[in-house]
């Protein structure tokens, strides 16, 4: 009996895989609509005055960011946790009725929160805080969802057979603890209905912080939401999926630990770079800049460790489109984590702040690193979860090149647009007057906004190909996992 292979239960993982695909499509579709609205504002009038209120930029923008961050990315994190956690800890969810119930409750409550978010944001109900737009009833539900996620993590760890914790588990634990702390402190708010004796909407609230303090807490949260949502859990994924897919051991376990603790310490202090040249104390701005530059070390430590894992096996990158996604994703991670610290240097930030260069920086990281890695993880999981071979590796390869072109068009157009903006805003004539009006910069940027829209559209087309490939994989002929390993170089 002891030699029988463990039967993992992927029920909850499958559920979150489906929301990853669905919410990824919704978030990216809205993003493409927004990109073309910026390039061609008249698009919004096509829908008529009745719908224009709900489809304008200001109403759709928080839906785009939240769908990608709290929809696509979080679903991907949850899906991979319920897959990786079982395999690395050598324990099945099916062994514990309690943990299985927690996992299912986690999913369904999460889905209810998603519906509440979509309805409230479309209705214009928002706190107007970046990445923290939800009002207090939804915030409470989010906390419950997060507690359930934590219970699944520590519950599986508690009944594990594998006593040592692989580095990926460390990163998942850090994701849970980091976001829990950030979300609770940033969303401290007072419901105005109760504070004002029942006057106003019952769901409305005001922040417990004000002015400069509010900005400080908000960007401590905002920057570190990127750290613990877009960086830490994605590193957890690649430390598992790249070695499994390539058959190579992680290049350096010591480097993975060093990078882990470096990220944990340094990232938390870098949020001040969002508030350069503001009313925040100058020493705090300087600290944000310094820690941002130092952040290059642990970030590149992780990325280099991933790339060196493929040392001597680079032919696999040419042979496997799935490994292409992960290797290029790691490269984009290096790229983005060098670009961010450069933008945090005060002299550079004087040009970059409020420009589209910042938008380009965010998207080369999210599209090239987060998006590529989550899709690669689901491609690896799908044959093992559904016990079916990937429907089409040719379609996967085509998707890779289409999306890579899309990312390159996106960030290069935004780089050029951003630096152009920054230089035009600062330009003066011989009398000391501004050389350009604001509308001059808008006119100059039009072609770059169009290119950005095309780049986003290409990425969306690639994502539709990904969704179709996953769907066809689910409905293909069922095979045993041993067959999957021998079917192609993609099994491992």
From TrEMBL:
Q: Which organism is it from?
A: Sulfurimonas marina
The EC number of this protein is 7.1.1.9
| Domain Cytochrome oxidase subunit I profile residue range list | 12-492
Listed under catalytic activity are: 4 Fe(II)-[cytochrome c] + O2 + 8 H(+)(in) = 4 Fe(III)-[cytochrome c] + 2 H2O + 4 H(+)(out)
Give the family per the record.
Belongs to the heme-copper respiratory oxidase family.
Which cofactors are required for activity?
A: heme; heme b; Cu(2+)
Would you kindly state one Gene Ontology biological process term found in this protein's UniProt entry? oxidative phosphorylation
Q: Which domain of life is it from?
A: Bacteria
Keyword Transmembrane helix tagged: yes
Under what name is this protein listed? cytochrome-c oxidase
GO molecular function annotation = cytochrome-c oxidase activity; heme binding; metal ion binding; oxidoreductase activity
- Please name the pathway: Energy metabolism; oxidative phosphorylation
The GO cellular component terms are: plasma membrane
The primary location reported for this protein is membrane
For this chain's record, the cofactor binding note is: Binds 2 heme groups per subunit, denoted as high- and low-spin. Binds 1 copper ion per subunit, denoted as copper B.
Its subcellular locations are: Cell membrane
Originating gene:
ccoN
Q: Which residues cross the membrane?
A: 21-43, 63-84, 105-124, 136-157, 169-186, 219-242, 249-270, 290-310, 322-338, 358-379, 400-425, 445-468
Could you tell me the keywords of this UniProt record? Answer: Cell membrane, Copper, Electron transport, Heme, Iron, Membrane, Metal-binding, Oxidoreductase, Respiratory chain, Translocase, Transmembrane, Transmembrane helix, Transport
Q: Which residues bind Cu cation?
A: 223, 273-274
Q: NCBIfam families, from UniProt? A: ccoN
- Where along this sequence does the record place binding of heme b 1; low-spin? 64, 363
Membrane topology, as annotated: Multi-pass membrane protein
- The entry's heme b 2; high-spin-binding residues are 361
């Amino acid at each position: 009996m002891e030699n029988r292979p463990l039967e993992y239960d992927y029920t909850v993982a499958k559920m979150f895989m489906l929301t990853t695909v669905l919410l990824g499509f919704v978030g990216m579709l809205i993003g493409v609509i927004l990109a073309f609205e910026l390039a061609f504002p008249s698009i919004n009038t096509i829908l008529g005055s009745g719908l224009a209120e709900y489809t304008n930029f200001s109403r759709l923008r928080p839906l785009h960011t939240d769908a990608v961050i709290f929809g696509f990315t979080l679903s991907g994190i949850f899906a991979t946790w319920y897959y990786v956690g079982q395999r690395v800890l050598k324990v099945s969810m099916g062994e514990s009725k309690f943990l299985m119930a927690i996992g299912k409750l986690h999913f369904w409550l999460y889905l209810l929160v998603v519906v509440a978010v979509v309805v409230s944001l479309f209705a214009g109900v928002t706190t107007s805080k970046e990445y923290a737009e939800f009002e207090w009833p939804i915030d409470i539900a989010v906390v419950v969802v997060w507690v359930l996620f934590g219970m699944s993590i520590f519950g599986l760890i508690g009944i594990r057979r594998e006593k040592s914790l692989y580095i990926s588990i460390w990163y998942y634990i850090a994701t849970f603890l980091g976001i829990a702390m950030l979300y609770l402190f940033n969303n401290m708010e007072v419901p105005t209905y109760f504070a004002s004796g029942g006057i106003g909407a019952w769901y409305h609230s005001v922040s417990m912080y004000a002015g400069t303090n509010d900005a400080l807490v908000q960007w401590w949260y905002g920057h570190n939401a990127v750290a613990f949502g877009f960086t830490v859990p994605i590193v957890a994924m690649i430390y598992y999926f790249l070695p499994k897919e390539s058959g190579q051991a992680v290049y350096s376990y010591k480097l993975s630990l060093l990078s882990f603790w470096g990220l944990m310490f340094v990232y938390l202090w870098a949020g001040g770079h969002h508030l350069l040249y503001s009313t925040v104390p100058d020493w705090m701005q300087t600290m944000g800049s310094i820690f941002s530059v130092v952040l290059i070390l642990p970030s590149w430590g992780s990325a280099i460790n991933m790339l060196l894992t493929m040392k001597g096996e680079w032919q696999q990158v040419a042979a496997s489109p799935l490994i292409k996604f992960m290797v290029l994703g790691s490269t984009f991670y290096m790229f983005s984590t060098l670009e961010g610290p450069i933008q945090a240097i005060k002299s550079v930030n004087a040009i970059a702040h409020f420009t589209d260069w910042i938008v380009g920086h965010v998207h080369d990281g999210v599209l090239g690193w987060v998006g590529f890695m989550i899709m690669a993880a689901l491609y690896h999981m799908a044959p093992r979860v559904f016990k079916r071979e990937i429907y089409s590796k040719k379609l996967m390869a085509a998707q890779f090149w289409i999306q890579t072109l899309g990312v390159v068009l996106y960030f290069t157009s935004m780089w050029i647009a951003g630096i152009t903006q920054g230089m035009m805003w600062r330009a003066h004539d011989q009398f000391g007057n501004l050389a350009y009006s604001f509308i001059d910069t808008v006119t100059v940027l039009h072609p770059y906004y169009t290119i950005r829209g095309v780049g986003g559209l290409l990425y969306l087309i690639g994502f539709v190909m990904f969704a179709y490939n996953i769907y066809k994989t689910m409905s293909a002929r069922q095979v045993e996992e041993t067959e999957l390993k021998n079917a192609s170089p993609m099994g491992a």
